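Quick check before the chapter quiz. The format below is the same one you will see on the exam, so make sure you can read both the input and the output lines.
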Amino acid sequence: MRPPDQLVHSRARLRPRYALFPIEGYPLSRLPLWTSAQVRVLASPAIGAQFVQYKIELADGGGTRQAPDNRVETFIYLLAGATAVTIGKTKHTLTTGGFAFVPCTESFTVEATEPASLLVVRKAFEPAIGIEAPQAIVGKTTDVKTEPFGGNPHARLQLLIPDELPYDMSMNLFTFDPGFGLPYVETHIMEHGLYFLNGKGVYFLDGEWMEVEKTDFIWMGPFCPQSFYATGPTPSTYIYYKNVNREVPL
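Here is the expected output.
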């Protein structure tokens, strides 16, 4: 927040096919099913997204208890702190860099065992004829295989959800060394919810290059031209959502 003697300005952009929002512009809110929680709604259908993404700060002991609704699946990524996450009847401990995917058919609870910060992505599950239902996933980013993107060891990709047909959503980590980026401008049907974890760079969105840095959020709609180039003295890492592996509804 800027002092009162300074002009108010922002890098925030909202366009028909993308949005770029610094975290400072999001007011704190609350959600009925989350206790001792400060919530920022990063993306929702109100801006054109077909998913919801939250950044949630939990006090020690805060969290949620949610029953399965057979419709909405949930992904949780721990930015900082520690939580106990129970999916069905199985309890897990998540620390910084830990993550969990919860199918729409499973109940789940989250309880902070110390103050914690997390990203939560929620999406309506799309069943597919002849494809088995997805299973719960719990893991930690340090245990996920890192692959050079396009054979470039300076651009490294990690798939937190396997690229398999039961899963209709993907959550990936992308890390770029300074001076490296995506090798082309992408245009595709998938949309993204992207949160910068570390570093800075310039992002190309629908004809514009814009500076981005840690804690920025970007929504990219279907077929929005997009690319990225890392700048600064340290590697840049972001986590992003995309919808995958399903027929296009007509």
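If your answer matched, good. The chain has two domains: 26-140, 142-243.
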